[in-house]
Structure formats: C-alpha cells, structure tokens
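[DERIVE STRUCTURE TOKENS]
===
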Amino acid sequence: MSAKRKRIWRNDLVALVFLLPFTVLYMVFTIYPVIQGLYMSLFKWGLMGKQDFIGADNYTRFLGDKFFWGALWNTTKFVLYSTPTIILMSLGLALLANRRSPLKRLYRAAYFTPNLLSVSVISFLAIYILQPYGMGFISNLLKTLGVQEEIFFLKDPQLVWVSIVGTTAWWTCGYNMMLYISALQDIPDQLYEAAAIDGASPSKQLWSITLPLLKPTTLLILLLQLIASFKVFAQIRLITNGGPGHATRPLIQYIYQAAFEKNRLGYAAAMSYALFLILVVLSLIQLKATREGDR
C-alpha cells in the first residue's frame, strides 16, 4: 500500500471515529423512534395490555375524524397568521437594529432577549398580561385610559388567535432578526453609496437593493418558520389548553391527547406521520422554489 493510500485510509478512519458517537446517538434517539413509531401505527397500541395488529386502520380512521381535521385546520390557521407576522416583524427589527447608532447593540440585545426565555415563562407572562379586569395588565391599562368594556382576550374565538400569534411573534422573532442582521451586514456599502449618488431615496434603496439581496435569507426563514409553526404545541397548551372549546387546539395537542389521555398510541402515531408528510411536502415545495429562484 502506497504512502498516499495509507494517509487517505488514516484520515478516513479518524473521521469515522469522530462521527461514530454522533451517528450512534442519532440512530438511537432519532432513527429508531421513527421506525418504532411507524411500527406502532399499524397496531391498536396502548400503554398496557396486548397490542393487536390492525394494518392501515389507524390511517383510514383519522381521515374520517372531524376532530383531526379541526385540529389540522387550527394548525393551518396558526401557520397562516404567524408566519407572515413573524417574518415582517423580524425584518423590521433587523432594519432598526442594523442602523448606525451608539445604542445598536442595546437594541439587538433587547429584541433578542425574549428568545432566551422558556415557553413556560412566556406563557405565564401572556396569561398575566391578557387576563380580564382586576388581573390583566392590558385590561387594567385600558380601564385607566377610560375603556369600560371588559375584553376577554383568551375567551373570544377571534381575539384568542391575536393573543397567541402576538405572544409567539414577540417570543421567536429575535432569532430570525439575527439571521436578517447577518445577511444585511453582507450587503456592500458601496451599493448604497452608488444608489445615493444616483439620487435614490432610502425607500427606493430598500426596495431595489436590500429586499432583493435578502431574498435567500427570507426563503430560509420562511421554510424554518413554516416547519416551526406546524409543530406549534407548548404555548397554546399552556395559555389556552386549546380553548375556548377546541377553537385553538393544534394537531400536536390532539395527537398528545389521543396518546396519553385516551391511551391510543397507535392512532396518535398514525396522525404523527400525517403531520410528518405535510412537513416533508412543504419542505420539498420550498426547496424547489428556492432552486428556481436562484436560476
């Protein structure tokens, strides 16, 4: 064996040694649960007792389950409400935090700080702020300003979505803001200087230079936000528990209830793979759009 081939073999072996711990953990905690979940979805599977093989019955069952479709529609509404809101907020905050100012670092830290808080803390703050008279910060503030009508932010079917989306946007837009700031810093200053010499106003520079050059970052954030929004669960579970009624119950909460409250793990696994298929299709569509946009 030549010295070159020995060196290549040694480098491959070193790389394998470094990759092995991650590969083992990935197989145990990701690949195996996926395979096990697919296996469970073919059975009438409970936490205790015998598991009966029922084939694709769990899959055909949720197709006729009105609660499944209701939860899926609630999740879709959250995606449609939250995704553009979070993207626009993130872009706006990034533009503000990227301006030349001695307080620029303070702005970035202030905008990003909510992202460091846990979902339980965020949910507690939302409940405190949105409670009705005598308890809620916003209701008491409105009362001080002379608004006597009592507003139930977490009980009204329309206002509850505003509350949840607003809480989620305030909590999560800091991360996307940092992605936008990183992309903004990669835009050469010479482009803005040349545009200013040609007489382009700041708004014209925004539409003609900044936004087009931020398109790849926007597509990335859109993909990440779509996936994250379709997986919404914790903040809704803690703030409204899917209420009022089932008006805000997302699909993952319905899956959770089917598995751990109704003891139907096989049925819950089947619904989980329906959600997984939706996320895969969305990712493929987004990747295809990204490739076509780069041409």
